[in-house]
Amino acid sequence: MNAFRLLLAVIFLAIAGYTSVVVFAHGMGLLPIFFGDMAKLAWPGQFNLDFLCMLTLSGLWVSFRHGFSVAGLLLGVCALFGGALFLSAYLLVESFRSEGDIASLLLGEQRAGR
Fold it and tell me: DSSP letter at 45?
């Protein structure tokens, strides 16, 4: 579990640093570029569509993990729009809250019987 937590911290720091540089250099204009590449029906758009599907699955999983409660749905929206930056921080926090129990981490405390 410690290796997983270290990986999550590295992912968070790498994406936060990279995003900071990009925002400083290019501003916050991600969405027109993201969907514009998809509209061109080329490889960058294919990657973006695949990534959008992964973000959707991530958001659904986070919402499911919280029983589709209001808080769970809000966290799911954060996962959808926050990507790996959100998910790495979320999983790091939840890995400590679940005390390293992988079933609880994946399913949530209610479904894991905690």
Answer: H
Residue among 50, 111, 62, 51 nearest 86 (CA): 62
| pLDDT, tens digit (0-9, with 9 covering 90-100), for 3-32 | 999 999 999 999 999 999 999 999 998 899
CB 65 within 8 A of CB 87: no
Q: 52: which 2 tokens?
A: 């959008």
CA distance 100 to 98: 5
The two tokens of residue 2 are 């410690």
The identity of residue 70, as a single letter, is V
* Triad 25, 19, 6: Cα angle to 5°: 150
Q: Which residue has the tokens 């509209």?
A: 39
